[in-house]
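QA checklist item 7 of 12: single-chain prediction sanity check.
[x] sequence parsed
[x] length recorded as 288
[x] structure emitted
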Amino acid sequence: MSEYERVDKNSRAIMKSGEAVSATGEPAAQRWAEILRRQWHLLMLSLQFYTRIPVRLLYDFHEADLNQASRYIALTGWLVALAAACAYLSGLYFYGPWGGAVLAVATGVLITGAFHEDGLADAADGFGGGHTPERILEIMKDSRVGTYGALALALSLSLKIVVLAQLSPDAALLLLWISHACSRALAISLIASLDYVRADQLSKVKPVAKGIATRDIAIAAGMAIAPLMLAGAKALILAAVGLWLLRRASICYLSRRLGGYTGDCLGAVQQLGEIVLFLLLGALWSSI
């Protein structure tokens, strides 16, 4: 049994000879240290998979670990937002609001390696040009960007830049934090409601989480809601309703057109989540 598996199974402590020990006879302090190491490993795995940030994993990679690592996807969004915020402030100082907006959006794309934007483009091409599930999957596997994908990317990036440029610096920074965290939590929540559509071995799609526990969704949701709590009641309600409607619409659409989800679909939903938040919160805060 590997160290990772041993930590996973060692879930409770018992009292023995007056000393707290784990179910495998380890001291409780050591047990908790290993649990923390495991959680750190999952966070690093989330960063490694969803961003280009160079990290070191504590354990060997197993594709199934992505299911649990998804609990930290909102926290990963926090770190992406932090990098985008630094770029925004630098651009704002040297080039004004438009420069800050462009650098913030560009940084978000670069630090993730356009991971989610690639999903948006592929999904736009697939659903725009395919009329059957088989044809949709075939188009999404094609590494070339078509007309629908190019238009989706252009409209998405342009909209984000325009909205950020219209907001005050405080509002823009908060919007970056909220959108990067909440949109990622929204995307992985679909895993619990849809079946994974298996692609063949020629698929260019990277490994993707194919199952997620309710506890992991709750952890991701909690980290996503945290920045929203700072935005006020109106923003909280507006964002919650908008994301809930988008989630329901995404589940219905993907079920009808594809019978489930792929990694590209999750990336597209993440980008749509950002767009919804930019439109709703941008309209709210630009009118204040």
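[x] summary fact logged: The chain has two domains: 3-61, 68-286.
[ ] second reviewer sign-off
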